[in-house]
Amino acid sequence: MERGSGACLQIMDPDVIPLYKAVNECKIGSESSQTDNKTRLDGNDHAFANLFDFGPKFIRMRLTDGVRELQTVIRDKATPRNDFIFYADRLIRLVVEEGLNKLPYRKCDVVTPTGQVYEGLRYEKGNCGVSIVRSGEAMEQGLRDCCRSIRIGKILIQSDDDTHDARVVYANLPKDINQRKVLLMYPIMCTGNTVAKALEILEMNNVKEENIILLNLFCTPQSANQLVTKFPGMTILTTEVHPVAPSHFGQKYFGTD
Amino acid sequence: MTDSVFDFKAQPRANSASDSGGSEDGGEGDSDQVTPLTVCTDLPNNMSPNPPRTPKSPKIATSLKKRHRAPGSHKPEGTRVLHTHGRRTLYTAGRPPWYNKEGQLKNAFVIGLCGGSASGKTTVARKIIEYLDVPWVSLVSMDSFYKVLNEEQHKRAEANEYDFDHPDAFDFDLVISTLKRLKEGKSVNVPIYNFATHSREKQMKTIYGANVIIFEGIMAFANPELLKVMDMKVFVDTDSDICLARRLRRDIAERGRDPQGVLKQYMKFVKPSFEHYIEPYMQSADIIVPKGGENDVAVNLIVLHVHNQLQARGFKLRNKQAQASHNGQPMPDTLHILEKTPQVNGMHSFIRDKNTSRDEFIFYSKRLMRLLFEHALSMLPFRETVVETPQGIFYDGRRTSVKRIVGVSILRAGETMEQALCEVCKDVSIGKILIQTNMDTGEPELHYIRLPKDIKDQYIFLLDATVATGAAAMMAIRVLLDHDVPEEKIFLCSLLMAESGVQTVAYAFPKVKIVTTAVDKDVNDKFHILPGIGNFGDRYFGTDFAE
């Protein structure tokens, strides 16, 4: 388990930007003009979320009550840390399971112990995961729990405190990554700059956009917009599009708040 | 031996009444034993017509064509043995279905046993149990239902001045409600009466419905409503001189009381009471047994009658269930199948493939189970809630209003799902039910049950890896209902089900939610699902190497 390994590097979560900025930048979507300091927004307001059409490659997970509960617990300030990790891991697992559906497979019939034929399928080999340090590492275990021996690369990106420009500090990827499908893991997106930077690295390694699936938990409309515009070939999977992202995720998950 | 489910010989468990599970922890849901349960309070003081030293359970089987163990018994006993059938080893002598194929309860056969004090009621009851030779006989003694005495009455009792031989000394309302529930096959809590303090103990003894219930007591016939509950009324008539002689010997020799006190009580209460409240009710009896327990002819007649009654009720449940034609009927609304995504299909391909290694079989079935439980959890009731976030905004979310969930696994295959449930559900309590198929009759039999307390207020996830005919699931649901769990709070969670099983369960229990990852078409004559998955438990636990 990689949990906490990033903490010793003392890096900032690069995608974290001040709240007022996030809200202001997202005013485009919020029809209801809230002037209160404490804005009240419903992240699962479909009318709101549907204002944005991010195209067919942008997939929102089906919102069951169960998923909404997981989101609520993660959002709640009062959630104790062990609950937070438990519920976050559950949500991550669901996103990973959903993401694996996007990988290629072929038909494959099998014979059951009763001697009958079951029309099944088999997944192709040649996939890998790439996590963006540090919060992306929180999702590695979820992927491991589904694909036991999958290769996982890492990219560390830091952002400049003033300009929010993202800068690559470290990247270590499987050598044949250009022949693989890539599950890119990053749970929270505010601006989308970090993921955009990571995609540049992947493209430098000759990974095609079409072979990338981004696994994400929470994102802002702004970040979604940036990514689908810049990388139209990439598949994005998320559970929620909301003007305010739960930017405390990495801190609380790794216990560095 | 093959035609009747009642042919099993249970093994003896002497004094089972006083040392079985319930009395340690008390409360309901503690009945972990599914052996024939009996009740008899240990009477430290006077007034006991029956010293509880006799074996109340069905007597030993002399024929060991079938061999038995007492499931859930705390004591290792020499007779706990196995029944081997082909390559499989099974435990038998469990409880056969006590409901019909619609899941509705069959009434138990209630025998009322009345007679004067020390007339030999207990001996007759014991002989009936012994000769009946069926599992699931409960003996309920009226002594458990004495009223709680206040201080003044208590003092009078100490001085042999309180009349225990009067109908008013008994709590008839409680007797009637208890017997009615027992007759319906539901679980009951019988008070344990303390004769030293003349009050009820905090703990209750849990009895679970039986095929035959024997209710005995001096005032057993004194209430007309009580009489209606009984299917057969037996009066034990013994000469009053003999009764007195026995009583004297018992109270003096075994309970260390002085002859004066015994005689005083006899003259003042026991004798008049017999004449007023017991003897007149002899006319209500169907059978009068003279000479009490020595009368083998009478006992044999009673047993013959009960056997005929039981035979008339028993039938081959599972075959009926398997054959029950639900063909062409649409799947019920209560069925919720996990969406067949490529991943779900891929995992099914692994676990259904007969060549899959056990390592992969376990890995992929666990992944599938986790998705199953996430799906089931999202079907609980939810409510809107607003939470404050660290970002300073309020967030409109949802939380489930269910505080506690209890997982109840049907052994053995159901146990494989416990871990996955624990992974998605914090602080879940786990109960267990062992149901096995009797290889001779093909009927499911209940062998062991251990449920958390207060189960009736919780949501229940009933776990079984596969559901073919639905016989085991149905029995498990029946057990839960008998413990007062509302039907709509039961979720039957299963990896794979057959259509017939879904229909059977849904037809019998239309409010039970059925959650599964796939539904197959057929069931073969060995009750395996087709194309199916094989024997899930064997593949998971690795006990199929002989194949």
From TrEMBL, chain A:
Assigned GO CC terms: cytoplasm; nucleus
InterPro entries: PRTase-like, PRTase_dom
Primary site of residence: cytoplasm
A Pfam short name: UPRTase
GO MF annotations in UniProt: GTP binding
Location of the protein in the cell: Cytoplasm; Nucleus
Superkingdom of origin: Eukaryota
Tagged with keyword Nucleotide-binding: yes
Domain Phosphoribosyltransferase residues, every copy: 67-242
Keywords for this protein: Cytoplasm, GTP-binding, Nucleotide-binding, Nucleus
Family the UniProt entry places it in: Belongs to the UPRTase family.
Protein name: Uracil phosphoribosyltransferase homolog
TrEMBL record, chain B:
Subunit structure: Interacts with RNF19B.
Residue ranges annotated for the Phosphoribosyltransferase domain, each copy included: 340-543
Enzyme Commission numbers on file: 2.7.1.48
Name of this chain's protein: Uridine kinase
Record-level Gene Ontology MF annotations: ATP binding; uridine kinase activity
Chief place of localization: cytoplasm
Subcellular location: Cytoplasm; Nucleus
Reaction equation(s) it catalyzes: cytidine + ATP = CMP + ADP + H(+); uridine + ATP = UMP + ADP + H(+)
Cited function: May contribute to UTP accumulation needed for blast transformation and proliferation.
UniProt biased composition (Polar residues): 33-48
GO CC annotation terms, alphabetical: cytoplasm; nucleus
Listed GO biological process terms: pyrimidine-containing compound salvage
Organism domain of life: Eukaryota
Entry keyword Ubl conjugation: yes
Keywords recorded for this protein, A-Z: ATP-binding, Cytoplasm, Kinase, Nucleotide-binding, Nucleus, Phosphoprotein, Transferase, Ubl conjugation
Pfam families linked to this entry: PRK, UPRTase
Annotated segments matching region Disordered: 1-84
Root EC class: transferase
Domain Phosphoribulokinase/uridine kinase: 110-298
Associated pathway: Pyrimidine metabolism; UMP biosynthesis via salvage pathway; UMP from uridine: step 1/1; Pyrimidine metabolism; CTP biosynthesis via salvage pathway; CTP from cytidine: step 1/3
Family listed: Belongs to the uridine kinase family.
SUPFAM superfamilies linked to this entry: P-loop containing nucleoside triphosphate hydrolases, PRTase-like
InterPro entries assigned to the protein according to its UniProt record, in alphabetical order: P-loop_NTPase, PRK/URK, PRTase-like, PRTase_dom, Uridine_kinase-like
